[in-house]
Write a structure and sequence with these properties.
The chain is built from 1 helix and 4 strands, in the order E-E-E-E-H. The chain has one helix at about 55-60, and strands at about 5-15, 20, 35-45, 45-50. The strands form 2 sheets. It has a two-stranded parallel ribbon with strand order 1-3. A two-stranded parallel sheet has the order 2-4. The radius of gyration is 15 Å and the shape is globular.
């Protein structure tokens, strides 16, 4: 789970029968606070980097 200002770099990750789901950082103007660099090799796996979802209480409190 990431938040604005966190960048996940998967360019040096070698995959074999694997899947990577990581969105590229948008130009939002937010400074980069933390850069996570994944490197090495992954076989038969999945890497998912996404923003945290809003919890049920936050959605129900709207209005």
């Amino acid at each position: 789970m990431t938040r604005p200002g966190v960048v996940v770099d998967t360019d040096s990750l070698v995959t074999n029968y694997s899947q990577i789901k990581a969105r590229r950082g948008r130009a939002t103007g937010a400074p980069v606070v933390l850069r996570v660099r994944l490197s090495g090799e992954i076989e038969f796996g999945q890497v998912v980097a996404r923003r945290a979802r809003k919890g049920f209480g936050r959605r129900a409190a709207k209005g």
